[in-house]
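Q: How would the structure tokens look for this protein?
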Amino acid sequence: MAGQYRQAAALAEKALEDYGSKEEWQLLLTRALLAQGKYAEARKVITNALANNSWSIRLRWQAREVFLANGQTAKAAEMVDAVVDTVSAQPRAYREAPDMLVFGQAALLKGADPKRVLDTVFDGARKAEPKLRDIYLAAGELALSKHDYDLAAKKFEEGLKQLPDDPDLHFGLARCYAPSDAELTERAIEATLARNSNHVGALLLLADHCIDAEDYGEADKWLDRALAVNPVHPDAWAYRAVLAHFRNQPEKEKQARQAALKSWKDNPRVDHLIGKKLSQHYRFAEGAALQRQALEFDPGYLPAKAQLAQDLLRLGAEDEGWRLADVVQQEDAYDVEAYNLTTLHQTIGKFATLTNEHFVVRMSAHEARIYGARVLELLEEARKKLCAKYGVALRDPTLVEIFPEQKDFAVRTFGVPGNPGYLGVCFGSVITANSPASQSGKGVNWEAVLWHEFAHVVTLQMTRNKMPRWLSEGISVYEELQANPAWGQKMEPRYREMILGGELTPVSKLSGAFLSPETDLHLQFAYYQSALVVEYLMQRFGLERLKEVLKSLSEGLEVNAAIERHTAPMAQVEKEFAEFARQRARQLAPGLDFERPGGPPVADTHGRERQKIDLERLIRQQSGEEDWESWAASRPTNFYVMCRKASELVEKQDWKEAQAVLAKLVELYPDFTGEDSAYRLLARTHRELGELEEEYRVLQQFAEKDDVAVDAFKRLIELGSQRQDWQVVELNARRYLAVNPLVAEPYRYLAAAAEHRDRLDLAILARTALVRLDPEDPAEAHFQLAKLLFRAGNPEARQHVLQALEEAPRYKPALQLLLEMSKRKEPES
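A: Here is the predicted structure in token form.
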């Protein structure tokens, strides 16, 4: 367990010489030899051991691993059969916990029910011998193989209660946490290596982590350490092949793959692992090809089937992808990811499909009937602008799936529920997104989300999915801002503090900022910094140079080399960008002082949600209220001081004094948006003082800057309606619907604005949505729609007037409209 494999092998050999062919020493020797990659020697030892101890099923189980390492799959299968047959013939002879454990593992490979094995065989062995480490390892591995990470963690934790210093159990926990919690994963790896510095699994997991961060040099170092322990480890060489692929070194990639297959020439795990890592970096086509190769080696290799299903679904090859997902679920009913996918397939089967020449949109039938047309309209607008800007002709229609349930979005996107911070994901020609129905009242602009994701479609296809995450995200956030200044991320006090405080990530390592952010704030800052780098590149070198960078990425050049080729040396880029970012930070409300009353930045959001300024927390971090007053008195233009003062005056309903402070804040910081925006409070002071004209003006300024200020949009709609400013009513109704298209109120105002501006098509669209939103007065809703349709010469008018009369048979205006329809020949549709 301590990783001293050479010493362990030597001790085992000496013990076998001194004490004869003892089972425990033979097991220890073969394990020590396997750990060092001495597979041929291990085969010799285990073959001799079996000859001397033909009754031992533990040796047969160990022999299976040895034969597999040597590529002798038929002999490995014989060992499994031998274990099952031996125990079946003499069950009473194999009731000790180690033998029960081996039998359970062999039975699983022969198709036994996993839950029954776990609950009876493994649990029985645990009760018989609670400190037998292999029990917890086997149970945890079984749960991991089914993607049940919670159950796996539970089993490894049970083992650690008995054996707190076991490195393999700590490593098992690291694998459980790896998909969801970087901090816990890191701690578990540290615990593993503290107890076994030569633990190859932990070293490879660290290399895997570095590859995901695109820190390939650091990944090389961990692989060097792993190969120093086992020079022929298949996974280590598979990772070497992954690195060579990302570095566009095809010959080295081929050599590394051959090295991975040296001992077992048709090992399906090698291509599966390489392909999985490529797919995790959005190289789905290459990943799918490797999964197919793995399945040529072993048609029954379930991990490759499962990964291929995911790859195909992300490539838009839905028929084959869903069919393969069903196959995986049928072959392994306990696999959590496969079960989730097949259940999701049934849900998607009930979705409505909207299509045009360039898009296939799937969404719930209810939502499609209400705002599906706007989804297609927005996507077409994005396609027209962004494809022209980047000179891209998309090969195939883009598939867009919008999920009303966050868990369904997560399963489609990640394979398992969770990851609540994501609003949308693009795989290249497939977009998945959460619908407004899944946001539970959170302020999210779904139009901005879809624009952002379609920008990914353009850049990913332009680079053949060969671009780092930071550049992909940076361009998408940047393009949001180009499309609508209220969208995207902007400089704010927390970002200003981080930039001026030296928290910028070097451009050459920016993808790593997305991998293990310290807080949710740091993750959002990674998005913002990435967009700021893109803005710097655009301003400094121009769009054409950036397009050349993307072209070089498509040819396989690493991003840092591509940037250097088409812009400037990376050291210069990083130096210039750092100054660009600092200058942008200093330009944030230069008339304000942003010194804080102490303590770290508040970081309590995720995704694209807005973050409140926790003034009370900042104040409490001072030694007392008296100190705060003294501190504040000497800082009349301090941002936090002014915010608190305004808040106190509003609470006291001292509207005039509050207005003066808030007006100054808006003057000095005109981009102050968000939940605690000075604009919001300033508008309130005008309203309380009866200054409706000024309230109207302030809210209009605010609405232009904040894309989720639904309360401002709503108030502007009301004021615009009172003033009969129907253009303002329409504009803010549309803004409201870009946040929540599933409520009736903005449609009522949109219909009114359209009717007053004689825009019949828009009025019909709004009234149709109202009918579909379960109106409080369905008779009135159907009647109003019928009137518009009748004006447009649409024969559906009769259907809606009849529905109005069905709800209210004596509804006189509807009866009159029906009579008018009968008198006049209905126009042809």
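The mean pLDDT is 91.

The longest helix spans residues 365-390.

Upvote if useful.
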